Amino acid sequence: MHDILKRLSIEHSELEQAMAGIKPRQFRDDEGRSRLLRVHDLLLQHTREEQQELYPVLEKAATADQRIADHLHLMSDDMKIVSGLAEDFFRKYQQGQPALIEFATDHGALLTILKIRLKREEQTLFPLFEALSRN
Question: How many separate domains does the chain show?
Fold first, then answer.
């Protein structure tokens, strides 16, 4: 596996664990907020790395390969949804103590969607990148 893909896979695991580790009771002493900010920073950093190192290779290949272009289009649409939900979640819970039920619902939904997105990257984009890197 290509080094960048190994690093991005590790970051996927870190993101999932960090997101799963946020609990509503932690907001009583600001631990939840600091964890929330950490996850937000990890997600932004990870997205930047993908945009700088993964997507340029795929976008270049997409100009000559409609299959790759189709995958990128679907993943781009998917990312818009995930990004919007994530930003809404982080904005909503940066301040104050969340209500347990509401937080649990929002947190569970975002965690599930994030896991699905990261899995799609690993199953769709990573193999494409790996194949292009061999050529």
Answer: 1
